[in-house]
Amino acid sequence: MTTAKLITIGALAKRTGTSVSALRFYSDRKLIECSRAQGGKRLFKKEVIRRVSFILIAQQLGYTLDEIQHQMAGLPAGRTPTKRDWEKLSNHFKSDLNSKIEQLTTLRDSLSSCIGCGCLSLKSCHLYNTDDAAASLGAGPRFLLGDKSVRNK
Asked: Out of 19-23, 33-37, 131-135, 136-140, which region has the weakest mean confidence (pLDDT)?
């Protein structure tokens, strides 16, 4: 790496709002690349700012570092990703994000009347889970997980 476009770990931390220790961790996990100056000081290409920003956003959306690392493996190594590279990466997330949005919408819309847990204490449950028929579908909030109402025969 040429030193002209390199920034220190402190400058990267300040620019991204990320702690230096988190940046060291990302670097050790190979989520971001760095070079070493004499004395062992970590130096980063400025384009790493985008990668760190992507990591932070993906973490806020609930993705694990392993999932983020898997997605970022599609970005080119050794060069700054282009707009096309980032678009390709974002397309991988669209399907998953749409699924999460659908689940959150269902949860939001169900909270006022029932959370789909199969509770027998509600006399007028619009999900009609008489005698806890939803238990036959498995554990957890069956209707929020996508199962349809079970009618007793």
From this structure: 131-135
